[in-house]
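Incident log, structure service

09:12 report received: a user says their structure output differs between two submissions of the same chain.
09:20 pulled the input from the user's history:
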Amino acid sequence: MKRGWIWLAVVAVIVMMVVGQFSGNYNKLVAADQGVKQRWAQVDNQLQRRNDLIGNLVETVKGTAFQEQQVFGDIANARAQMAGAKTPAERTAAAQAMDQALGGGALSRLLVVVENYPQLKSNEAFMQLMDE
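09:34 re-ran on a clean worker, output below:
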């Protein structure tokens, strides 16, 4: 009879060890699954943040590029008017248009550089968009 109880105790201990091992492995798998879900949530958050930033920056760059394009167009038109002026009255009108386009005046050499390279200001915004 003692032998039967000993075998039963040994079998019970072995069963408990096997069940404990499966339980531990299951808990590790659940913890690993939760870790994976957390990391994917972080990836989703970063992708959403990036999407929001890109949308905001694109709108900012569009606004800046449109504004710059309008300013450069006004300056180019005023310079063309100045170059085409024949009479003193036309020159005076062209000079006033140039002053208005420049918002008070600037160096003509600077105007030539800015007109030749209109991407100077817009590029900064586009580069920021690319960096983000």
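09:41 both user submissions now match this output. Likely a transient worker issue. Closing.
09:42 reviewer note: The chain is about 90% helix and 0% strand. The radius of gyration is 37 Å.
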